[in-house]
Design goal:
disordered N terminus, NAP_family, 292 residues, four-stranded antiparallel β-sheet, elongated, 4 strands, alpha+beta, 8 helices
Length: 292
């Protein structure tokens, strides 16, 4: 779908902390017995010291995670006014979000033709991280009045509970009569599978009903970590068809230039042959004159 490696858990969500072993919770460790050989005794003492040092490292890691979380929360709040300003400016550009999604290699692979038509009514996208950040986030999609569904806003939330189990929930889409793209996609696939090997992708909107593996929701992660930070970079991606068209025109121009060069070379060769014939004629006339 490539971009940076993403965690299978919702971004910023961390696995539950592994409890640090204390002397009471450690497995029973035999102190170095005075009867052990010297080398074994030294190794046993070294293992005990390593365990103590590792506990200190774990303690510092926990402390660092808490400090990093505070910094993330601080800057997340500072970014909000800029996100709001950016959304206001994006609203002035028609079809900004559908163009951004179509230009993104991973998201475009999930879009069928009717999905693109529906996404032309998408006016705004917002990603909101929950206050403590690591517990989850929400993605909101704002739509104008459209012929597909009644909802003005479609949302999907991702949560990580205290035990570290991921979950998700989303808005129920209120489809208009005969416009349910998720069902139409399924029917289209069943028919297409009989006629051709390559099936159309499932509807983009099935993502709102899929909660089977919230901890590995690639689309949610892509929108949050790749598109949302800078959607403009995907909106401005040049149209590949236009690039191919320009490339073909350049090839045609090159072929025409090569053809002209070939014609010029052939003309030069013909002129050279004519000059040689003239020289031979003049030499023949001189020879005849000498004979006379």
């Amino acid at each position: 779908m490539a971009p940076k490696h993403q965690s299978s858990l919702p971004p910023q969500a961390k696995k539950p902390k592994k409890p640090r072993r204390t002397p009471a919770s450690r497995p029973e460790e035999k102190s170095a017995s005075p009867n052990l050989p010297k080398e074994e005794k030294e190794q046993q003492e070294a293992i005990e010291h390593i365990d103590e040092v590792q506990n200190e490292i774990d303690r510092l890691n926990e402390q660092a995670s808490e400090e990093i979380l505070k910094v993330e929360q601080k800057y997340n709040k500072l970014r909000q006014p800029f996100f709001q300003k950016r959304s206001e400016l994006i609203a002035k550009i028609p079809n900004f979000w559908v163009t951004t999604f179509v230009n993104h290699p991973q998201v475009s692979a999930l879009l069928g033709e009717e999905d693109e038509e529906a996404l032309h009514y998408l006016t705004r996208v917002e990603v909101t991280e929950f206050e403590d950040i690591k517990s989850g986030y929400r993605i909101d999609f704002y739509f104008d009045e459209n012929p597909y569904f009644e909802n003005k806003v479609l949302s999907k939330e991702f949560h990580l509970n205290e035990s570290g189990d991921p979950s998700s929930k989303s808005t129920e889409i209120k489809w208009k009569s005969g416009k349910d793209l998720t069902k139409r996609s399924s029917q289209t696939q069943n028919k297409a599978s009989r006629k051709r090997q390559h099936e159309e992708p499932e509807s983009f909107f099935t993502w709102f009903t899929d909660h089977s593996d919230a901890g590995a929701d690639e689309l949610g992660e892509v929108i949050k970590d790749d598109i949302w930070p800078n959607p403009l970079q995907y909106y401005l991606v040049p149209d590949m068809d236009d690039e191919e068209g320009e490339g073909e025109e350049e090839d045609d121009d090159d072929e025409e230039e090569e053809g002209l060069e070939d014609i010029d070379e052939e003309g030069d060769e013909d002129e050279g042959e004519e000059d040689e014939d003239d020289d031979e004629g003049e030499e023949g006339e001189e020879d005849e004159g000498e004979d006379d």
